[in-house]
Amino acid sequence: MVFSENDVLLAQSGDQEAFMRLINNCENSLYRVAKGILKGDMECADAIQESLLKSYQSISKLKNPHYFKTWLIRILINECNDILKKKKRNLPLKGVESIVDQQSDKKGFDELSAAISELNDKYRSVVVLFYFEECSIKEIAEILKIREGTVKSRLNRARSMLATCLNEANEERGAENGPFKN
Length: 182
Prior knowledge:
Layout: H1 5-12, H2 16-37, H3 41-58, H4 68-90, H5 93-105, H6 111-118, H7 121-132, H8 137-144, H9 148-177
Helix pairs in contact: 1-2, 2-3, 2-4, 2-7, 3-4, 4-8, 6-9, 7-9, 8-9
């Protein structure tokens, strides 16, 4: 989605309607990015809400209106990562075991989503931006403030890890079903 740089300039001067138009144009992207990093809808909503508040408060600091979406997604990724860090600090070891048990018991569990959620933050962010948001390597490098070569290597490493994880899941499912069951 291409943003009107005029709307960005208006929002920077305090026009709330212009800011709302900008947010409305990218709300689906914000949700997809948040959902790709976080699991729960409530966590996604919290991250998006906090990102919108921070972006509204600091939009005047945006130097180039052309990069509004990149800037906004970067804020969102930082919020998602903060939520994950807080969650890791607050989860006792017993809590982790019960979550793993609950997830393994669910029927119809989306294996790809599970595999993506198991990736390290740096790999998960690249996968979400590349595949779900269809960002280019260059855009991802700008959003994450890393080199394009780093984006490419993280993407390749993430693909390899996902393939391994999905192959293991398929092998386990095949062993459970036996040679004569489908």
